[in-house]
Recover the amino acids of this structure.
């Protein structure tokens, strides 16, 4: 992990979402002390400020894609900003904003991996598969489509960001915590053979075994990207989200997930998205997100040597 150089990139928009408020997410994470928390680990933190882009027009969908021009503009900006920080040898953390912005961030990471000859592994931590297309989506909101767009299924304005279509392939993704999937998405997930560790699977085998499988094959040449939608968490501990779903990971399950990612030493980029302060209680969801980021950077209560594990 390139822990010594971290860049925070705020992206204050909810243009891809159906519920307003995620545009305030970057500032809520700053108020919760994300820069200070990371710096406490001896990490150099550079806050790049907020990107700028078109306002949310709040108009009806056109051709199945609400706000397509605005979504594309924001994602192009995200792509260039994330790619620039990676090229400078830094670990970019995108502070969203809604999850449509992962199109820009992950396409930038994929581009960087192609340029540097590294293997890409994406951990998609989310309650939703986000694999909808215009013909399948019940809502039409693009924050339910980023995985599809990254895999080459969507409008050219989004699939072409980064210069290669598809930006990534389904075998590079591991989805964790999934528990709300539309019927069309279920068929599409099976068709594309995306590896999904849904909540029933986590219930049955536990978070430790789940993460061991999700991280299998990660090595020194792997760029590990984590895309954390805060609705990954159970809504009892993370209410500040526009699309909460019951039955997500508990606090300790989420912490273990982050700790095991930290143990690999391969975290190289991160998204934090869908935080909606308008729906939160005293910024508790933002504070929890910062707590999880601390675990990604090495905070751990582990008191036993790894050799004791069986």
């Amino acid at each position: 992990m390139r822990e010594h150089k971290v860049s925070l990139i705020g992206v204050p928009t909810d243009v891809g979402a159906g519920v307003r408020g995620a545009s305030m997410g970057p500032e809520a994470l700053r108020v919760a002390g994300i820069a200070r928390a990371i710096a406490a680990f001896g990490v150099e933190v550079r806050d790049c400020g907020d990107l700028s882009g078109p306002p949310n027009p709040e108009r009806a969908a056109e051709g199945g894609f609400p706000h397509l021009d605005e979504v594309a503009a924001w994602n192009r900006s995200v792509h260039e900003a994330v790619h620039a920080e990676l090229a400078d040898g830094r670990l970019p953390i995108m502070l969203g904003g809604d999850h449509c912005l992962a199109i820009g961030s992950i396409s930038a990471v994929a581009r960087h991996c192609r340029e540097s000859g590294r293997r890409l592994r994406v951990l998609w931590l989310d309650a939703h598969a986000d694999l909808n297309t215009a013909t399948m989506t019940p809502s039409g909101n693009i924050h339910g489509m980023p995985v599809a767009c990254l895999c080459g299924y969507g409008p050219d304005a989004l699939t072409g960001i980064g210069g290669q279509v598809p930006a990534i392939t389904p075998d590079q993704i591991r989805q964790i915590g999934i528990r709300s999937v539309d019927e069309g998405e279920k068929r599409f997930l099976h068709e594309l053979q995306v590896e999904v560790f849904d909540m029933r699977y986590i219930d049955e085998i536990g978070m430790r075994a789940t993460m061991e499988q999700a991280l299998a094959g990660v090595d020194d040449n792997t760029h590990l990207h984590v895309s954390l939608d805060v609705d990954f968490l159970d809504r009892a501990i993370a209410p500040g989200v526009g699309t909460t779903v019951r039955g997500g990971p508990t606090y300790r399950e989420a912490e273990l997930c982050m700790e095991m990612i930290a143990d690999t030493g391969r975290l190289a980029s991160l998204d934090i998205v869908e935080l909606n302060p308008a729906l939160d209680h005293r910024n508790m969801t933002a504070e929890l997100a910062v707590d999880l980021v601390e675990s990604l950077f090495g905070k751990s209560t582990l008191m036993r040597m790894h050799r004791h594990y069986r």
Residues 68-87 form the longest helix (20 residues). The chain has eleven helices and eight strands. Strands lie at 5-11, 44-50, 91-96, 119-125, 173-178, 195-198, 222-229, 267-273. The longest strand covers residues 222-229.
